[in-house]
Fold this protein.
Amino acid sequence: MQTKSKRIKNNYPVPYAFDLFGETSVTISEVDLWMQKAPKMDRSSPRFDWYVKNWDVVGKIKRVKAEYMTLEDYFDRLSAITARY
């Protein structure tokens, strides 16, 4: 007599941005998006590289991707919150 096994559904999100070793990947386009949205700074700015390095933009993007999955989701939620004020 065989018994049927039930699949247990996972209700919490599984981060898709992890590679084989558990690190979150951050692309240059994501850094550009962050810099265009958060400090509103273009790549042509002489302070662009300094800002990315000293304000730990890559670390911030990793934290956002772990919680919100994409930067677009984060900025959508952020704009919805700030639109009220």
